[in-house]
Amino acid sequence: MKKKWFVVLLSISILLTGCGTNSKSEKKASDTTEAKTLQMMEINEIPSMDSRKAFDGGSFIAITQVMEGLYNLDEKDQLVPGVATELPTISEDGLVYKIPLREDAYWSNEEQVTADDFVYAWQQIVDPKSGATGAFLLLDVVKNATEINQGKVAVDELGIKAVSKYELEITLEHPVPYFTSMLTFPTLFPLNKNYVEKQGEKYAQDSEHLIYNGVFKLADWKGSNQTWSYEQNNHFSPVTKKDFRDEKPLVNEFNPK
Fold it and tell me: Which cellular component, as a GO term, is one annotated location (predicted)?
């Protein structure tokens, strides 16, 4: 069942890849001093910009324009760095993933994106009080996720921790060969705890109650309108698109002996 869901989710992620920015067009635009405006047609209104509750194509397309997770898929559907600097180091039993993070990743409010932002986001996903739509992604995958979602274990027992400010450690219930590819999915993007909790119920209700760690910022979105804008996020630091294909396979990164 989990593998079936992964195929569906990966298909959505590949669809989202086509909605990202094109590096060639970016270069051409940067070679001129004239401002460029790109008109885009979306498949529908944005139902939600809250990565905990969004689970539809329209929301995911918008979220991936303004947010960034550990990894991205490029135009060839290959893993490239996001907030992570390289592919995970995986233990021999396939259960423990260690992921180093960039030190130059920032939110649009000038705070750094750190390992704690991913820990908080994932805890929110499985916390039964948050009502997260995509909790099933981590159930029976990440250690203690199912028990936490059932209210049997505290959220801080989830199998993800900040080893340091710039290193994550994730522990699984059992080996999942496609787990690294799952990390491209918007549901698993980081959340800034201080900002989210300060906004309370207003968080992600409109573009004024969001912060961003992606290439763009959302503007002119009131929560239900049919038009909105993307503006450059001046606090986003581009990363060289390193291709991981020579390091490890996209899916079969764990081969049990």
Answer: cell envelope
